[in-house]
Structures are given as structure tokens and as C-alpha cells.
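Example 398, ligand D-malate.
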Amino acid sequence: MIRPNTNYGNLKDSYLFYNIGQKVEAYRKANPEKKIYRMGIGDVSLPLCSAVIQGLHQGVEDQAKRETFHGYMPECGAPFLREAIADHYRQRGVEISPEEIFISGGASDELGDILDLFDRQSAALVPEPAYPAYVDANVMAGRKVYPVATLAENSFLPEPDESLSADLIYLCSPNNPTGAVFDKKRLQKWVDYANQKGAIILFDAAYEAFIEEPDLPRSIFELEGARTCAIEICSLSKTAGFTGTRLGYTVIAKELVRQEFSLNAMWVRNRTTKTNGVSYIIQRGGAAVFTQEGQRQIHENIAVYKQNARVLMQALDQIGIWYCGGKNAPYLWLKCPDNMGSWEFFDLLLNEIQVVGTPGAGFGECGEGYFRFSTFGSPEDTQEAARRLVELLKPKKS
Ligand code: MLT
């Protein structure tokens, strides 16, 4: 009889966002008359910008004519999109060649798939609170995971520690869920550490477009030595509203070599075997993001989400709840009031004011007692949710 992958037995019952979705659905069924304000999963509410829509239409038109029709796409990505992304890096002073850029169906797929490159005996270091797929994908592969708690005292930014030994290091900046962002000095410490240990950093840059401060690194490749120790995983989901359209890209420099294996060449081998590339139409839409007009339009949308963040921050200030994030990241990470547990606070908000957030405990044990709000909702819903929060939690006059 075939043996299933019994590592699945080591996973939590269900995936965090699936679990929340089920709870919210049960509440909706029991209370069909109540409107729910969703600020849980980081799913965008604004439609794709017009430059992207034009690109997608162009892709459809091209597929309608014999002269411009595309069948299978190059597995690692269409040259026009790889070049557009390389140019985008160049404009920010980072030299990446198109062959070092791999087009993907999105960062979450890629974060799991990329693990094919590493031996199952290798161990993963995950600074927590963390996006739960980092842990789950490694558990599924039977890999050891070392969670390392980050703390408010250190602004939720992990520091390398000589006593830790891991082969894969997950770093996410701006961070999901805390909104913490590495500055160059702190990130350089990790790059130096990884190079010294021969480890590899999986750098999740899904939220780089939300960075406001010009001195903060938006790519790990802005740092000396990153080409020999880092893989950068990027996404158009939050940057350009592609959560339902699916597109991302991954950067693996040619210098990333371990035991004479080039990781770039291995990923070419992997992609050419396991995929037939991303849809031509979607890649046309994606290329529009990297035009001047596309960049202007996506930043207009990002400005709407940033205004949502300000609305929520004002509400939290008003009720005296501690929080961080929201400035260079689309998430607010807050301390649950009255020492409540994070699922307890989740239930309170859902049942009393129909506001959905994400319990911090879902991002690792050290997230217990914290809570996350996404700022990707509609401005109207965000304002109403903020009003309800204040109404529910404002200090009562005695
Ligand atoms: C989140 O809410 O943490 C993300 O939106 C989930 C995802 O990107 O898959």
C-alpha cells in the first residue's frame, strides 16, 4: 500500500486563514442580516489599475491573432517581463540580470515550491510571529523548523545569534504580521551571518512597495554580499492588486552556489520540469505594472490603503491600544486589550461589532496576546470598523 506523507500529521489541524474563513462563514450563516467588516486576510479591495487592465486586454487581443498568438510560455518567464523587472531594479540602483529573475504564479506558491532546492535534512529558522506558510511548508517536507521569538523590545526585528544553527533563514521585510522593517545595518548583519555560515536567506519582499522611508532597503540585493546568500521572493498581489490574478517573481543571483550547485541553474531545471510558465495574458498585465504610468497608478492605490492605516491608527490611539506597523507596511499589529488572548479578542470583535482581524497566535506562539488588522479593506468599511472599535473599546466613564 502506498504510504502517504505522514509529515502532514505534524501540521496544525487547518491553515490559519482557512480556519478564520470557516469561523466567519459560520457566523455569517447564523447572522445573515449582519454586515461583516473584513480586516483579516490581507486581500485587496481595489480593482486592478487601468494600465494593468489595458495590458491584460492587449494580451487577449494578441492571443486572438495568428501573428501575435503565444502557445507555451518560456517556463522561467516571458523575456519582456523579466527585462521590465530587471529595469525596475536598475532604476533603484540594483543590478539584476533578466536571467536571474523567475516569473511565478505568486509568492505563496513560490515560498513552498522553492523548498525543492534544499535537502530535507536542512533546518529552517523562522523568526516569529511569521506568515504561517513558512512553517507549514517546511513541516510538510519533514524539515526541522526552529522558531525564534522576536519581541516588541527589539521592534520585532530578529538578530543573528551564533548559538543558532540553521540552513534556511526566513526574513520578511516589511514584516507580515508586525509591519517591522529592517534598516540596512540590521539586514547587513543577517547577510554577513548567512555568508559566514553558508546558510541561505529566503527574503520575502511581498510588501516592499509600502516602504515610505527612502533609506530603508526594499530589496535585500541593495546590500553587500546578498548575491551569494539570498533568494528574494516578490509578489504583485499587494503591490498591484494581483491577489486573484496571480503573479510574482523570484530573484536568484548567478553567484548563489552551494557545494558546486548553482541555485539559479537548479531553479531553471526545476521550473522547466514542473511548470509550463505563467499565462501570457497575465504576464502582459504584469509588465504594465513596471511602466511609468503603471507605477503611478499602483501607488495611487497603495495611498488608499495607507489612508486606511491612518484611520485605524487614530482609532487605536483614541482607545489607548498599543500597536506598531501601518507606516511602511499594510498591517497593524496590536496588543489585545485587558490581557485578552488573541482568539478571545477575535471572538469579541466578531460577535460584538462584526469586525474580523487575525489572531496573533496564528503567527506563532509568541503572537499570543496580539492581533493583526489588514489595511486592504475598502475605505468605507475601514472607517466603519474603526468607528465600531472605538465605540466598543473606548474607556467607560465611571
Ligand atoms: C496575509 O493575510 O497574511 C496574506 O494576505 C496571506 C497571503 O498572502 O497568502
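Summary: The first strand starts at residue 37 and ends at 38.
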